[in-house]
Structure formats: structure tokens, C-alpha cells
Amino acid sequence: MLRLLREPRWLGYLGVAVIFAVVCCALGAWQWHRREEALAAIARLDANWDRTPVALAEALPELDAYEEDQQWTPVAVEGEYLVDESLLLRGRVRGGDVGFDVVVPFRTTEGTILWVDRGWIRQGPGAERPVAEPATPEGPVAIVARLRPDEGVIAGRGAPEGQIASVDLGSLAAALGEPTYTGAYGLLAEEAGGEPADVAVATRPVLDEGPHLSYTLQWFVFAAGGFVALGWAMRQELRGVEPERPVRRRRSDADVEDEILDRA
Fold first, then answer.
1. Residue 192 and residue 141 in contact, taking contact as beta carbons nearer than 8 Å
2. Are strands 97-108 and 87-94 parallel, antiparallel or unpaired?
3. How many Å apart are CA 22 and CA 226, to the nearest integer?
4. What per-residue confidence (pLDDT) applies to 243?
5. Of 82, 59, 81, the residue nearest 72 (C-alpha)
6. Which helix (H) or strand (E) holds 146?
7. What SS3 string covers 176-207?
8. What pLDDT is stored for residue 257 in this prediction?
């Protein structure tokens, strides 16, 4: 087979097989990386969801502080909601229904602002408002919230006045004009020692690693398959150029008699 690689045509085929294998291996590595990310997300959820709440200032010593491994960490905070600054986070789905999350700034006893997602309310039929107005408590209250990262701006999505398309902490802090945590916001777990009645608080998400491992193996199999296909094509080429073997014809009785007469 190696003698075929002296021909430019087969060298070109080999180059195509190599490029195909490189692309497949890159896609396989990408799928493997996605699997590792999924496993890390599951590990963070398992490690942090049921942890004992810590003080907000301990978890986030700076307003812009936040580490990815802190996701879902419960923090205990005391202060009061700025009810008049409440916003509706649109386009949030729960159990197949579309609704809003109620997002409210919470002024801590230290004077800093933590934005809190209190929970979900179903959207009214054919309306841009929830089926019921949230009843955010006024006055001093103690809450427990789980840390969530800044969502940033979602390109191409807007919202009417009083609503937002994402929890973009930078924009929210600029609009409020007070010292605000911009690294993370809080997902409400408890309010005044229990769950609020006016909204549905977030439940523990169900995470799995997905099909990334099988996709990884498939891409590596495809990479090897390119060389297998090349080898098969070369073998077929060699079979086509091999000289044909002479076909041996069965001798008849007449042929034998002629041979005897020739000898005589």
C-alpha cells in the first residue's frame, strides 16, 4: 500500500483523512470539556445547596466579589426590601408555564444593596402582567438567599418599564445609585423564617452530565474511521491493478491423444 502514497492523488487523500481526523478530535475534546463543565456544575450544586447559611459579608467581602464555586451558597441577610424599586423578570418558565420572577433590591443593615429574586408568579393569559401582584414585605426582615452569578445583558431582548429581561447587576446598580453587590445576586430560600406565600421560591434544579461522553467517543471513532476508509480504498486500488492469473483449462481426451501422437 505504501507505494500508492508516491502518487499525488493518494497523498491528497491522505491529507484529507488527516484534516478530517484533526477536526473530529477537536470536536471530541470540546465535548469532553463540556462534560467536565457539567460535572463541575453538579458538584457545586451538591456541595452548596444544603450548606448552613453564612453571613453575606463573609461570603462576599467586596461588592464585586464572587467565585464560580460559590454558586448556590446560602447567605443570611438582615435588612429591608426597597419595595418601590421592585422589578419583574420576564420570560421565566416553571413547570411548562411562562411567568415572571419578582426581583427586589434588599438594603442590608450595613447599608449595601443585594438584589434578591424572591420567586416566580404565573403570567396572566394574554397579558404582560402576572396573575397577581407580589406582596413583598415592608420593614425589617431576615432572609436566606442562595448566591447566583450576574446574568449580564441578553442581546436582542428588551422589556417594558418596570420589567427586565435579565439580572444585569451593573445596569441595576447604576440605576439605583447606591452601593450594590455586582458580582452576584440572591435567589430567595427563606423569608422571615419560612417561604413566602405570594411567590413560588426556586426549587433545587435537576442537573445531569448529558450525552457528552458518548458524543466524545463518537467523534474519536469518526477520526479513526477516516483512516480505515482510506486503507480500504487503497486495498481496492491494489486489487484492481494486480495482473490476472491465467485460468487453467481442463484437458479433454482429444488433447491427451494429440499429445501422444505428437510424441510418437
1. yes
2. antiparallel
3. 10
4. 45
5. 59
6. strand 140-149
7. HCCCECCCEEEEEEEECCECCCCCECCCCCCC
8. 63
Single-letter amino acid code for the residue at 48? N
Of 226, 104, 245, nearest to 162 by C-alpha is 104
Could you tell me the pTM of the whole model? 0.75
Quote the cell numbers at residue 108: 442590608
- H, E, C per residue of 69-136: HHCCCEEEEEEEECHHHCEEEEEEEECCEEEEEEEEEEEECCCCEEEEEEEEEEECCCCCCECCCCCC
> What pLDDT, in 10s, does the model give residues 75-130?
999 999 999 999 999 888 888 888 999 999 999 999 999 999 999 999 887 778 88
Q: Summarize pLDDT for 216-236 with one digit per residue, the tens.
A: 999 999 889 888 888 887 777
Residue in this structure with the C-alpha cell 419560612, named with its chain if needed: 194
Query: How far is the C-alpha of 123 from the C-alpha of 118, rounded, in Å?
Result: 16
Q: Domain residues of the chain, as ranges?
A: 1-49+211-238, 53-191
| Residues 77 and 143 sit within 8 Å (Cβ to Cβ) | yes
The torsion defined by the Cα of 66, 162, 108 and 192, in degrees rounded to 10, comes to -100
